[in-house]
Amino acid sequence: MHEFGEQFVNGLVDGSSYAALGLALVVILKITRIGNFAQGSQALVAVYFVWQLLQWGVPLVLAIIISTIASFLLGAIMYGLIVRPVDRDQGSPYGTVILTLGLLSVLEFGAQAIWGADPLTFPALFGNQTVTFFGVATTRQAVGTVGVLVVLCILLYLFVERSKLGIAFRAVAENRLAAASVGVPVLWILALGWGLAAAIGAICGSLVAPTLILQPQMMSTVLIYAFSGAVLGGLTSLAGAVVGCMLLGLIDDLLAAYVPAIGGSYSLLVAFVIIVAVLLVRPQGLLGHREVAAR
Amino acid sequence: MSPNFRQQDRKRVCTTSARMPGRTMTRRPWRPGKGVASLAAVAALTLMATGCAAAASGNGKAATSSDTVSAGFTHGQVRLASTFPVSLAGPGQMLGYAAYFNYINKTQGGVKMADGKRYKIVFQYLDDGYDTGRAVANVKQWLATYHPAAVIGMTGSAINLATIGLLDQAKVADLYSSEGDDFWQQQVSKYPMFGPTQDPSDNLWMASQIAYIKTRWPGAKLALLAQNDAYGQDITNAVKNDIKGTGLTLADEQWYNTGAPSVSTQVAALQNSGATVFINTSLPPAMIQSIQYAKTIGWKAPDFICYSCATTTLLTADGAAANGIYAPLVDIDPSSPQWANAPAVLTLKHIISTYGPAGSSAASAEDLDGAAFAELIVENLEKSQPNTQSLLNTARNQANTYDPLLLPGTSVTTSPTYPYYVNRLTIAQYNSSTEHWTLKAKPYVDVTYHAR
Questions:
Q1: Of A135, B63, B234, B349, which has the fewest Cβ atoms less than 10 A away?
Q2: Using CB atoms, which residue from A14, A109, A118 is nearest to B33?
Q3: Which of A82-96, A235-249, B66-80 has the highest mean pLDDT?
Q4: How many Å apart are CA B367 and CA B226, to the nearest integer?
């Protein structure tokens, strides 16, 4: 039972790493309808910026705040200067896909060019001390990361669903032309959406960096897990992204631990088979909205 | 996007290196650094070790296709080339080569070979991004236009396999590639131009660990963490072979995929197997994660990490969790305060700072590693006639050749049937507070080595 608890907690902790990025992916997708493959790389650069600020003597919390604000601004600017020209006419969706894949490479290699490829020590905001629940050990950082994710998810839900600006976001996501015709500043809303997602990425990236180990490829594989988890949970649902990613982490880890024929080598493969099976039954994902899936 | 240097190929762009990763990154895991320079190097960078103009000017004319007998040794030059994942691992090792060759050219007028004549060393490298196709294209380009005597320091089993046929056909030596795979010892007779590598054999460093464990913890139950690729399979086979008849048992083996975000599940399973010794062959960043997680769950089994992971840079990322880690060492780690001011290291630092091309750094372990291998290559050239076969024979038949970064008491020893540059290494234990290694045993010698 102790071992199961240990592996269960491992699954949740791994899932929280995926959910951190999955949340940002869904925010940007909900608002702009763009699948941003550069989301992980943006978060990576933000984490490196935090690390740089730490080297300059800035306290960790302040460094994360500065990096989050900088990420928000850069995300908005990136949309206005780079993404918008491709996205403007909403022609082929492949244009933005290729663009964000290109940004992924530029940001990842750029980070490596500036900070090198060696793994770097990144401090844990909540500390790396071991905490034990019912005999199962994990770190304070892991618990804190899950807590922040839950809070972020609630705040984002309230923002998108209950605030006036959130209504504007949803209007732009639904129909840009109609939103513009009633006075919604579409360009600003889209840029704000990119900025918001980048800021979330910065916060979440800073939380998972001590666990994933800060190095240029830190977010590469996580991006695949995050996208997959978000699809499983529902690309239109913030809570779905978190739940889907958590489930993916659990499935992956428990299969690896308890099905020797699968093990760590094939657990992800089997997890994807399960995802496909779920989507065949429920294409919009576990918590997604059916009408969006029907588009 | 995760570059899979099997970081042994790890030793991949990693990966993953104290002398560098990716199947093999370099002698030690990668430490790509020097970003701006590395990006600039994505385009074909050409460095003349002479520090002068282009290879085709200055000291002599470009070689022609008629240079068949001693191609690579014409016009008073010896031409060397490398294809390397510069955009992933950084240019450090290449800049180290260039710095040392430039030093020889500037201070000695070139290398004095066994025919009594001096030859300027011309060195060029291209980035392959750890992509086999690009590496093949690079080699073809060298063979068509540059006619090198040898290609040096290639990284990756796939790249070596994809290019060795071309090099065999063109009679160009493949020297000091980053390889420790057992495959090469089994197949070396099939590749007449494949020279010694710049890594010890995977079998050697694993056998040294098993031998030490058998002595120190008789009857120990082993837990094995391995990467799910050819490197991991190579190592796992070595472990299973080496424990036969020793009284040691394999309690559990766990695998992880290259690029997996976490290995905590595997480490927890290994702990729960009741194993008493942890054979941790994972590569960064999994290696760093596994050490941290073992500490989190309070698993105190002695942890033996892989040869290419034993660098201060990597272990520093683990902080106090790395205290007491065991590893097989071949060379000194110039990034450790223990050896940063060793005379050999200071000499290489001086050479790099004085003769290194733009972007080189005397503080970089990769640059120092490249310069050390360049010194070894110069020693080989000094004992060779000016033709590729002679150089290859020299490299394959070394007895106690000096390498400035090898541990005291260790030297380069090769044979035609043993394609690795050393045949012995030593188990050491790491102290995280002082960043020092303590040698724990006498050097372990590879019994599969065949003296000439």
A1: A135
A2: A118
A3: A235-249
A4: 29
How many whole angstroms separate alpha carbon B399 and alpha carbon B382? 15
Residues 6 or more apart in contact with residue A264 via CB below 8 angstroms: A256, B228, B254, B255, B256, B257, B260, B263, B265, B266
Q: Where are the domains of chain A?
A: 2-293
Partners of residue B284 in chain A, C-beta under 8 Å: 119, 213, 215
- pLDDT tops 80 at residue B92: yes
- pLDDT at res. B44: 35
Query: What tens digit of pLDDT does each residue of B328-337 get?
Result: 999 998 888 8
Residue B362 vs residue B220, higher pLDDT: B220
Give the model's pLDDT for residue B214: 96
Q: If contacts are CB pairs under 8 Å, which of residues 134-193 in chain A contact chain B?
A: 137-139
Spatial separation of the C-alpha atoms in residues A84 and B58, rounded to whole Å: 51
- Pairing relationship of beta strands B77-84 and B118-127 according to DSSP bridges: parallel
User: Using an 8 Å Cβ cutoff, are B76 and B120 in contact?
Assistant: yes
In sequence order, what are the residues at sequence separation of 6 or more whose Cβ sits closer than 8 angstroms to the Cβ of residue A175? none
DSSP state letter for B155: B
Bridge partner list, B136: none
**Cα A194 to Cα B412: distance, rounded to the nearest angstrom:** 56
Cα gap B227→A264, rounded to integer Å: 9
Q: Does the structure show a pLDDT above 90 at B27?
A: no
Half-sphere exposure of A274 (CA within 13 A, CB side): 19
CA distance A87 to A100: 11
Cis before residue B148, ω within 30 degrees of 0?
Answer: no
Contact B88/A112, CB-based, under 8 Å?
Answer: yes
Asked if the model's pLDDT at residue B137 lies above 50, the reply is yes
Q: What is the ipTM of this complex?
A: 0.82
Best A121, A145, A213, A248 member to test B by mutation, with max B CBs in 10 Å, is A213
pLDDT confidence band for B429 (50 / 70 / 90): very high
Candidates 3.30.70, 1.25.40, 3.30.450, 1.10.3470; CATH matching A2-293 = 1.10.3470
Domains of chain B: which residue ranges? 1-200+334-421, 202-329
pLDDT tens for each residue of B289-333: 999 999 989 999 999 999 888 888 788 888 888 999 999 999 998
pLDDT of residue B143: 93
Handedness of CA B355, B360, B361, B366 (dihedral sign): negative
Supply φ then ψ for residue B267, to 5 degrees.
-65, -40
Share of chain A above pLDDT 70, in %: 96
Residue B175 and residue B196 in contact, taking contact as beta carbons nearer than 8 Å: yes
Mean pLDDT of chain B: 83
pLDDT per position as a tens digit, B250-262: 999 999 988 788 8
Long-range contact set of residues B343-347: C-beta below 8 Å, sequence gap at least 24: B344/B404, B344/B405, B345/B404, B345/B405, B347/B404
Residue B292, both tokens = 């941290």
CATH of the domain spanning B202-329, picked from 3.40.50.2300, 3.40.720.10, 3.30.70.260, 3.40.50.720:
3.40.50.2300
The residue of A118, A121, A141, A204 whose CB has the most chain B CBs within 10 angstroms, and thus the best one to mutate to test that interface, is: A118
**Residue B64, pLDDT above cutoff 60:** no
Query: What 8-state DSSP symbol labels residue B199?
Result: S
Question: What's the pLDDT score for residue B20?
Answer: 41
**Local structure of B119: helix, strand or coil:** strand
The pLDDT of residue A88 is above 60: yes
Considering the four listed CATH numbers 3.40.190.10, 3.40.50.2300, 2.30.30.240, 3.40.50.740, the one that applies to the domain covering B1-200+334-421 is: 3.40.50.2300
